[in-house]
Amino acid sequence: MVDVSGKAVTARAAEAECALLVSARLLRLLRDASLPKGDALTVAQVAGALAAKRTAELIPLCHALPLAAARVRVLLPRGECAHGGALRVRCEVRAAARTGVEMEALTGAAVAALALYDMCKSVDRHMTITDLRVVRKSGGSHDFAEAAPPSPTSPARPAHSVRPHNTSPHKPAETYAPSDLMHF
After folding, report:
1. pTM to 2 decimals?
2. What CA–CA distance (Å, rounded) separates 111 from 49?
3. What average pLDDT score do residues 130-149 get?
4. 8-state DSSP, 183
5. 3-class DSSP state for residue 155?
6. Where are the alpha helices (DSSP H) in the chain?
C-alpha cells in the first residue's frame, strides 16, 4: 500500500460513469417501472453507494476512506429508442482524505451497472456494460474534468496522456517484484 501519511488532508471528489446498452423492450419496462424483479433503478443506486463505501475490501491495496457522500444516478436515454439505447450510470463520491476517491467512484458505477444487469437479465440477456471511466476528479495534484462525454456506442476514444515511466518511489534502475507473497 502506498504511504500517504505525508500528504495533506484535502476535500476530494470524483465522478465515474459507464454505459449499459439495453434493448427497446427493457428500456420501456425501466421507464414504466414494471420489471418482474421490481425497481431496478433504486436497487442500482443503493448497490452502487454501498459498493463505493466498501471499495477497500474489494480492491487490493486500496486505502479505506471515510466517504462523506456517494451518489449514484442512472440516466435513461431520451426519445423513443426503437432499437434500444444506452443507460448512463454515474457515481459521484466525496471525502476529506489524503488520497483520491477515483476507485470508489469507479467501483460504485460498476457495481450499480452490475446490479442493473442482475435485475434485468430475465428480460434482456444481451445487455452490455461498457465505457467505465473517471469523468471528473478534484482535490489532488492532477484535477481534471472531461469536456463532453463520448457516445457510449461510438468506438472513437479520446487520446489519453501517458505519464512518464519513472514515477515510482523506487530508484530509477530499480524494479519492484513482490517476494513475500504466498503462491497458491
Report:
1. 0.80
2. 9
3. 87
4. -
5. coil
6. 24-32, 40-53, 55-58, 102-120
Q: How far apart are CA 12 and CA 131, in angstroms?
A: 23
Mean pLDDT of 27-55: 94
Name which of 99, 11, 96 is nearest 59 in CA terms: 99
Nearest C-alpha neighbor of 76 from the set 36, 120, 106 = 120
List the beta strands (DSSP E) in the chain. 10-22, 67-75, 85-97, 128-138, 144-145
Q: What is the per-residue pLDDT for 26?
A: 95
Residue 10's identity, in one-letter code, is T
Residue 143 a catalytic site member: no
Catalytic residue among 39, 118, 143, 180: 118
Residue 63 in grid coordinates: 486505502
For residue 97, give the amino acid letter: A
Instruction: Write out the three cell numbers for 17.
Output: 460513469
Instruction: Give the type of residue at 34.
Output: S
